[in-house]
Specification:
By secondary structure, the chain is of the alpha/beta class. The protein is built from 10 helices and 16 strands. Helix 7 (about 235-240) links the parallel strand 12 and strand 13 (about 245-250).
Length: about 325
């Protein structure tokens, strides 16, 4: 393992996705440390949260991604070599999105060369695995709740579809802190306890059919808000479930990107709102203040980050398999 800052070595270890395929296409390689250039700084990666979008990229579903590529749309770490006076070497930073791990190499490595505009400085006492579980997940959860119009003191009712995803559990913990009554779905009976631990009031087992009976047993009029993290396959059903005049926010794509045969006038009840949240909206400076607030709230014990498992970089194949088999309840983190 290299020192905290850049040790001057010319090579580093990285998990390189050599081609599209199963988890085994992720190979641990000794590769050159990226050369620093204007506008970009070298970050010593201390942790990287795993995301399902990386799984889909690895499977070959991101047509503009060229292999070989170091995946990873987020990381936390320490600036090792800086080209930005506002971010001197030694600064703790987080980075998310902005084509990281797609157009250029991302967080599955000992070092990442990242655009200065993406770097979000944070000051924290949190351990690296906990900090690594926060950026993409909590920024997405908070952004989606904002898109739904949910705020502290809200007495509304929120249904989270895809509740044991890392974003689902983060949204549940934030909403519970707000005082919102929450229900959340999982496809696995053995994950219902994890939902309750995250602050969910009603855990619903999703057997693949309509949730109407289960939801109406809790809330006869339906929820005020639906946060749909499953996405394409469930959005139309969510629009039928939410109370008339309520809001559905699609902020995940566990089931893919496209809604087949989508007919807005037929599928969106009059007065009901359908919105979306894109985590790319909170990259760099746009997300920095919000991330610092989230970190402070975790430090204060207001949220418990839902850390599922921590893997070493050498175990990246096992980490992807764990995620792909839907074994995770919460966030999976890799520590280089």
């Amino acid at each position: 393992m290299h020192d905290d800052l850049y040790s001057g070595g010319t090579t580093m270890r990285a998990a390189v996705c050599v081609q599209a395929g199963g988890p085994e296409v992720l190979r641990i390689r000794e590769v050159p440390v990226p050369a620093v250039r204007a506008g970009w700084s070298l970050v010593r990666v201390k942790g990287a949260g795993l995301n399902r979008s990386e799984l889909r990229t690895r499977q070959g579903h991101s047509p503009n991604v060229r292999f070989p590529r170091v995946l990873g749309i987020e990381c936390v770490g320490v600036v090792a070599v800086s080209t930005d006076p506002a971010l001197p070497a030694g600064t703790t930073v987080a980075a998310v999105m902005g084509e990281m791990g797609r157009e250029f190499d991302g967080g599955y490595a000992e070092y990442a060369l990242l655009p200065n505009a993406l770097l979000m400085p944070v000051t924290t006492t949190l351990p690296w695995d906990v900090l690594a579980a926060l950026p993409e997940t909590y920024l997405t959860a908070q952004g989606a709740l904002d898109a739904l119009g949910i705020a502290p003191g809200d007495r509304g009712r929120l249904l989270i579809r895809g509740g044991t995803s890392s974003v689902g559990m983060a949204a549940a913990s934030i909403a519970a802190g707000y005082g919102v009554e929450t229900a959340a779905t999982t496809r696995r009976q053995d994950k219902t306890d994890a939902l309750t631990a995250a602050g969910v009031d009603h855990a619903i087992l999703d057997t693949g059919g309509s949730l109407t009976d289960d939801v109406h047993a809790i809330w006869p009029d339906g929820p005020d808000h639906v946060l749909d993290l499953v996405g394409a396959s469930t959005a139309a059903d969510s629009l039928r479930l939410v109370r008339r005049g309520g809001t559905v926010c699609v902020a995940g794509s566990l089931s893919g990107w496209l809604i087949p045969d989508f007919e807005p006038i037929a599928m969106i009840p009059s007065g009901t709102r359908l919105t979306a949240f894109h985590s790319d909206d909170l990259k760099g400076g746009a997300g920095a203040t919000l991330l610092r607030r989230i970190v402070q709230q975790v430090e204060a014990g207001l949220y418990r980050p839902n850390l599922d498992r921590v893997f070493g970089l050498d175990d990246i194949v096992a980490a992807h398999r764990h995620m792909e088999n839907d074994q995770a309840a919460g966030k999976v983190v890799v520590l280089p």
